[in-house]
């Protein structure tokens, strides 16, 4: 009886050892497969380096944009040394590419990649956004026609500051969509880092809704910060806002960028000398204007 128990115990130990060996082999195989996938995904060692920033969900999309049937991606902030052939080769690592178009600009170019299926496009956004080509992080997002955004050239626009890094266009639009005439919302992004610049613009078809949003939403929490709102155009105080020449959100964005791209000097409202008023909150009740 004792000998049978010892044999059973020995057999159990052998089975455990065999299971451990099989587990180690599976782990080694999984590691080798992962390394092969990484080499396949990034076929240019040193050219496509690991990102210095965490890939973030791109937020520059029209309100209500549906990506479920989209098979194309936009690629921004492309280094001047990148060719169309190289761009296609890099993005073909996530799926079969149907078409590739590179539009060259003086400082940074942009392009569009068309895939045969949505899954490949989604994988490109998740795995390549923020990756570096020649030391320059590319920005990858769903591609959409400019006509999908409403023309806001005749609308009333407000500036929204102190935005949390995680706030996207969709988040900002959802915050102000309680006002029925809210037509568009855009967060300003830094093309060099891929991060939010901490402010954006929201447009309204109705001037009263814009004023109500300024009055009601300022100081409210959006994400992890209390936001602040004001008229987006200089001189848009209560006295002269009737004399405003309306601008679209896109035009306001371009006022802060060069040719649709972020200005190298980063002259946002926080650095622009035309903005001479600051908001100071959480003051004690006895604080006066002179103090």
Number of strands: 15
What is the CA–CA distance across the termini? 95 Å
Rg, rounded, reads: 26 Å
Strand content: 15-25%
Helix share, percent: 25-40%
* Succession of helices and strands: HEEHEEHEEEEHEEHEEEHEE
Dominant shape? extended
What does the average pLDDT come to? 72
In DSSP terms (H or I, runs of 4 or more residues), the helix count works out at 6
Helix-strand category: alpha+beta
Sequence stretches where pLDDT stays below 50 over 5 or more residues:
52-59, 234-245, 257-291
Walk across the major sheet and give the strand order. Answer: 3-4-2-7
Largest sheet: 4 strands, antiparallel
Protein name: Oligouridylate-binding protein 1-like
Domain RRM: 71-145, 156-234
Coiled coil: 3-30
Organism: Iris pallida
Describe the structure.
The chain is of the alpha+beta class. 29% of the residues lie in helices and 23% in strands. The chain has helices spanning 2-41, 84-91, 118-128, 169-176, 207-217, 249-255, and strands spanning 48-49, 72-78, 97-103, 109-115, 132-133, 136-137, 139-142, 156-161, 182-189, 196-204, 221-222, 225-226, 228-231, 257-258, 261-262. The protein has a four-stranded antiparallel sheet with strand order 3-4-2-7, with helices on one face. A four-stranded antiparallel sheet has the order 9-10-8-13, sandwiched between helices. A three-stranded antiparallel sheet has the order 1-5-6, with no helix packed on it. Strand 9 and strand 10 form a beta hairpin. It is extended, with a radius of gyration of 26 Å. Residues 52-59, 234-245 and 257-291 have low confidence and may be disordered. Residues 3-30 form a coiled coil. Residues 71-145, 156-234 form the RRM domain. Residues 271-291 have a biased composition (Polar residues). GO terms for molecular function: mRNA binding. Residues 255-291 are annotated as: Disordered.
